[in-house]
Amino acid sequence: MKKLSFSTLLTTSLMTLSATLGVAFSSATLAAETLNVYTYDAFASDWGPGPKIKANFEKECGCELNFVALDSSVGILSRAQFEGKSSQADVLLGLDLNLMEAAKKSGLLAEHNVNTSAVTIAGGWKDKVFVPFDQGNFAFIYNSETLKNPPTSLKEIVDNQNLRVIYQDPRTSTPGLGLLLWVKSVYGDGAADAWGRLASHTVTVTKSWSDAYGLFLKGEADVVLSYTTSPAYHIVAEGVTKYKAAQASEGLYPQIEVAAMMKSAPNPELAKRFMQFILQPGFQSTVATGNWMLPVVKLNEALPAAFDSALQPTKVLTLPASDVAKNRKAWVNEWLNATTR
Amino acid sequence: MLSFRAIKGLLPALLGVVFFLLMGAASLAALLRYSDISSWSEYLYEPYLWRVVRFSLWQALLSSGVSLLIAIPVASCLIHRQFRGRAILLQLFAVSMVVPTIVAILGLVVVYGRTGWLSQIFGLQIPLYGLVGILLAHVFFNMPLAVRLLLQGYDLIPSGQWRQASQLGFSRWSAFRLIEWHYMKKVLPGAFVLIFMLCFSSFAVVLSLGGGPKSSTLEVAIYQALRFDFDLNKASFLSLLQVTICTLFAVVVYRIAPINQQDVSVLAVKSYPVKDSFLAKGADCMALLCVLVLVIPPFLAIFDPIFSPLFLTTLLSSGLWQAVLVSLKIALPAAIISLSLGVCFVVLARFCMTRQYLSVLPSKLEHLGNMILMVPGLVIATGLFLWLRDLGWGFQSSYWIVVWVNAVMALPFVLRALMPVLYQQERRFRNLYLSLGIQSWSRWCLEWPLIRASVAQAFGYALLLSLGDMGVIALFGSQGLVSLPLYLFQLIGSYRLEEGACVAVVLISLCLILFYCSSRLIGGKTVSGKMTGGNFHVNH
């Protein structure tokens, strides 16, 4: 009899076991005609626009659209970077204007070749890599039944120590990053002090929009950072009118959410088709009542009346994209240092 | 001299250890290749970084200090008093160490959270998110651990000393001062270092209860650097910093108090009653009350939802069973790999033990296995991932990386369970085996009945650790790779606590079932599924 040592036996049994377990999570389980779209959780959730878009796109492509929901919008890009060329992502959906430069630098994104002449965004759309899919303005939302004197400016939100505030982390979430730039454009060099004053009455800084909004609805805060169109959701979907967006006399900061396809997309043909589809009614008509943002092309049917009552900005503030790309890390550090003192 | 035959028998064990080292080296090399060391100096000027370091140290010091402070009177009380429920309490202490971190966090949120029991029943609002929550969680985990470590110290007190104390009419205080403290002093530094390390590198607790950037630890900063900035450079720098701090801390404490309690001999200690007093009764009641308030409610909170109708609907969700399957697919191979690695280490160590010229090796090997406690699992995983990604196996590899890193993370605990008993075998019977010419496989066959209980324990630990892991999976988890703890973490993150509690019950039940099965199948009938071994802990 051949002498076997115990460890050899262990190794062989291990091999056989792992073979029998037969774990193949990845590409093997995905059908050939599947389009993988990385997006943030709220977009892909049952109450988000994801399911409708999936149904509409699958009708015309004869494929399967698979949303991979990630827990934060900034995390979409880093996830793709983390996976690198081996990523199964075809399309990244849910970055925004302020992340475009950084995302292009990663070298992972391909040009889309979509005709963007129909885009209604002020100043048109020229970018060759990104396609916009919705737009809106950031605003703080409050409950008008419990908050009798709502703030009318960003300065008031920063300085009113009795106001319990929740906002999102600018390192992980695009609304959080939006607030960072909003504060920067209003306060300039005084941003650090403003953050310090805001920190003393901030309930918490959450990882994503859905965490923050969920906490606000539970009554944990007086105001939460969201969008001017958020009250429309409560009116249309719930018939509730008590939630309102607070006006900011300094002006509002806009957000444009964008999508791009990956160079290494396993399914480049489908990815291209989806990029085209983003500006078509099948996608754009779901934006308003699914993602509660405004569409970026003109649609035939009018938006629900609730959107007409949405807050209009007195002034639109924007910082140049090149400045944002150059200073984002420094500004985030400034925010970190000011809020953790 | 080494004979060729002996080497040949050792080959698999050597290969195992070498493989372990190679994987570690590969992961480090991959990380360093992606980082630019010359730019590291600028991180040193970030005030936020030092705030994170300060907070990491501060919370770890507080957590370990509070855990030990509560543990001392509790241990003393458990030694001197026999009361109804004492055995159950000791069992609970053993169990609270193997509760998956995320489950305990859920229990704490249900009890202390904004809409938790405390605020519902007493209208008390505890600021759970931040230092308070982190402390509560760490004390919940580590106070029982500290008590068990201290009780091991008590086992060393000879009966004679108790007898004398009883005859001389010592009060509880004098007995503590003159006898107990003397033995506690031997155990405390080791316990302090262990608990400090566990709290310093705690991840899931801080991630869930940190509540924003204010209370962040190095481990969480590493996670964020990887997950949100994809900044490998920063991640490598931070992990190096973490390993440095941990090493320095351990070296300093071990310098002050050398530790050598590999094999605690448990004598049958007979204890004699010392004089009781009203004051002593009061102190003991206080200590027990402390325990009851800290440890019991989260447990009750976890098992609360069994009676709710929601429990059934949660049980029917496909996502849950998907997660159960993924968890099993991760935990079983991880435990097998961990056990094989452990056996490789121990075989090699005991081979060197009896040979003069190699006698330095065993302790080195053990340290090598324990080093893992200091190195952030996220970093090992990331390094491996990058390495495999460049070889073009990126997407498929993430599952195996989770398995491997879980296996490696469990290694210290596996070694702790295996080493003493295998060393003992070697000391007792080596010459007998040699004289009879019994080797390798036949020797294992003879040893098996004697060591199977420890093997079962080692395997069970590795299994539970991998089942409850919330570290690596947080980074690599994606669709199709969501383990139960991650599923639970997502539910807690979206404030679906009721559902989370149901999932937690499933997770705990799974842990208990698997632990029981492994101790019955591997350990044989002699071992009831008791979780012994005071130096075991799940808190990564």
- Spell the H/E element sequence of chain A: HEHHEHEHEEHEHHEHEHEEHHHH
User: Quaternary status of these chains?
Assistant: heterodimer
Count of helix runs of chain A? 14
* CATH level-4 homologous superfamily of the largest domain in chain A: Periplasmic binding protein-like II
Secondary-structure-derived class of chain B: mainly alpha
Distance between the termini of chain A: 72 Å
Main pleated sheet of chain B: none
For the termini of chain B, the CA-CA separation is: 43 Å
Globular, elongated, flat, extended or rod-shaped: what is the shape of chain B? globular
Protein topology:
The complex is a heterodimer of chains A (341) and B (540).
Chain A: H1 6-21, E1 34-40, H2 41-44, H3 50-61, E2 64-70, H4 74-83, E3 91-96, H5 100-105, E4 109-110, E5 131-143, H6 154-159, E6 165-168, H7 174-187, H8 191-199, E7 202-206, H9 209-217, E8 223-227, H10 230-238, E9 243-245, E10 254-262, H11 268-278, H12 281-291, H13 305-308, H14 321-339
Helix pairs in contact in A: 3-12, 7-14, 8-14
Chain B: H1 4-34, H2 40-43, H3 47-80, H4 86-98, H5 101-112, H6 117-121, H7 131-154, H8 159-167, H9 172-200, H10 204-209, H11 218-227, H12 232-256, H13 278-303, H14 309-315, H15 318-353, H16 361-371, H17 377-390, H18 394-436, H19 440-468, H20 472-476, H21 484-493, H22 497-521
